[in-house]
Amino acid sequence: GDADAFEIEAPGGLRLADVGGMQEVKDRLEAAFLAPMRNPELRKLFGKSLRGGLLLYGPPGCGKTFIARAIAGELGASFMSVSLSDVLDMYIGQSEKNVHEVFRSARRKAPCVVFLDELDALGAKRSRSHHSGLRNAVNQLLVELDGVEGDNEGVFVLAATNVPWDVDIALRRPGRLDRTLLVLPPDEPAREAILRYHLKDRPIESIDLGKLVKVTDGFSGADLAHLCDSASESALMDSARTGTVRMINTKDLLAAAKQLRPSTEAW
Length: 267
Ligand code: ATP
Hints:
six-stranded mixed beta sheet; 6 strands; binds adenosine-5'-triphosphate
């Protein structure tokens, strides 16, 4: 893990409205996170502090990163995505330094959303195994989350995990990652948006997205990406064989869907 490698994206134009479907997620985000940010007078009146972050959890590949980016867009904030597994370093003291560096960079770029992916990499279960420096990394993260008075102004911490039960309980205390948001596999409108996204730069016939959306219940965003890849591959193979471009059609996509098992069944 090299802390200098943590890139910060300038404020982007992505908005919650760009997130297809997932109305409950968007409503809760608006109510629990964005509305208080936007209304300092109300915050003051109701004694709500700005401290504390949000833990997004749910099966992998279901748009947590995408949603986090949209939140940054809503806040007009820069976006820094950090995978905890990249922060951890086997050299003594280096993990803590990396954690500190992440927050130092974010504070310099405030307003900034820090998106901590794979938060469970810091989990208690793993600390008992090989990573002896893990406890120190967790402690450093606690220090950064608590901050010194005013330190974290304009630093919004979002974290994500597929295994919320592995997340260190100390990280969940009030003022830390004290709010949670379940991000389930994409619903129909979300699946349609994801399919559109993955097909937009490919040669396609007019596609029956409605039908496709119906047969992909339980598919994650990653599954849908995979589905588009394999459909694309069949059309490519046909094209290569015959020497004329055969565009991707609904049949390719339906056939690919049949071959795949949704990866989120357990949720
Ligand atoms: P995770 O962080 O949960 O692993 P992700 O953020 O990498 O997931 P995917 O779910 O794999 O995202 O989606 C891949 C791409 O599909 C996103 O980058 C985005 O462009 C698009 N996408 C995903 N979900 C939606 C959605 N609800 N509406 C519109 N586009 C979406």
